[in-house]
Every structure is written in structure tokens, then in C-alpha cells.
Amino acid sequence: LENLQPEIKKLAERLRYEVAVRGKQLGWSEKVARFHFKKNLRRIITELYIRDNCHPFKATLLVWVQVPMWVCVSVALRNCSVGAVDSEVQEQFSAGGTLWFTDLTAPDSTWILPVSLGLVNLLIVEIFASQKMKVSTFQKLATNFFRVVSVVMIPVAASVPSSMALYWLSSSFVGLSHNLLLRSPAFRRLCCIPRTKSDSDTPY
């Protein structure tokens, strides 16, 4: 998508000239000319997305799978920890922890898991923020919103069973690892990911 922007800009300038010429020939008003420009620009951009197989909607597909799964697993862990009908399951959870969180049915009284979760989530947000060269007002608001959510998740994670906090931390840590790995120039070359203007040879 980033690599397409110069081509889109060039085609948009050419299209604006063609619409202006056509508009003069047919006596279009400014409103009609703008309508034809936007309509044709959308068609051109869609054709480029199809050509390069990079429609922005594809980037959201993972979210539609990931979020419901995250919610379902969280609810399942909560039910196994505090609301299990079979007491044997709850007993296994109460003795199935490790290190300082030996009881997965109880909240982490040390706050190590919740604070780690908040820090990892904040790190993910900052990595995304650092990738943007030009930031719109909406992107600034979204970044600040996710920063607040990351901090709010700390007391939330401290009030739920350790099994849930551990799952949330593990999920966030995997997300952080993916983000760091995808910033590696060697890994990007290995996966044949095209170079962009925002890429850095020293991303870390």
C-alpha cells in the first residue's frame, strides 16, 4: 500500500487534468467534475489494489478472527478458574500454575503479570506509532486511545484469575514478537516483502 502511493498520486494528477479538459468540453460544473474525478479515481485505485493484491480490507481479516477467539478463550479460562461445574477442573487450575502464580484461579497479588501485560501492550503501540512517518489526527487519537487501553488493562488483569492474565500476556508477547520480527530487514528479504520509504536498516 505504501509503495503504491507515488503511483496513485501520479495517476490522480493525470486524471484531474483529463477531467478538467473533458469538463470544459461538456460544460460540467465544478461539482459534476469533482464527482467524475472521485468516481474514476476510486476505480483506478481498486484496479491497482487488485493488480498488486493488497486491498486494505485484507489487513482487517485477521482481527475478525482474532478478537472473537481472544474473547472466547478468555471466557473459557474464567469459567475453568472460578465457575467450573466440574470441581476437578478447578482443582487442576488451582494447582497448575508455576513460579509466583501457582494458583491460576486467583488474581496475581504481586501484580507482575498485569504490569508486564501493560508494558508489552504499550510497547506494541509505540512500535506501530514509530512506523508512521506522517500521522493524521485520527491516527494520533487512535494511538492515544490504545495507550489508555494498555494502562487500563493493568488493573483489569490484576482483578481476574491468573490464568486469564497469563493468557493475555502470552497473546500480547506473541504479537510483540511478530512486530519485531517483521521489522527485521533480513526477515523481510527472506519473505520477499517489498522495501518501503519507512523501512530502516537499523529498525531496533
TrEMBL record:
Signal peptide residue numbers: none
InterPro entries documented for this protein: YidC/ALB3/OXA1/COX18, YidC/Oxa/ALB_C
Domain Membrane insertase YidC/Oxa/ALB C-terminal stretches: 2-181
Entry's localization field: Membrane
Stated family: Belongs to the OXA1/ALB3/YidC family.
Species this chain originates from: Leptosomus discolor (Madagascar cuckoo roller)
Name assigned to this protein: Mitochondrial inner membrane protein COX18
Lipid bilayer topology: Multi-pass membrane protein
Keyword Aminoacyl-tRNA synthetase: no
Protein's GO biological process: mitochondrial respiratory chain complex IV assembly; protein insertion into mitochondrial inner membrane from matrix
Gene Ontology MF, one: membrane insertase activity
Residue ranges of the TM segments: 111-129
Keyword list, A-Z: Membrane, Transmembrane, Transmembrane helix
GO cellular component labels: mitochondrial inner membrane
Highest taxon of source: Eukaryota
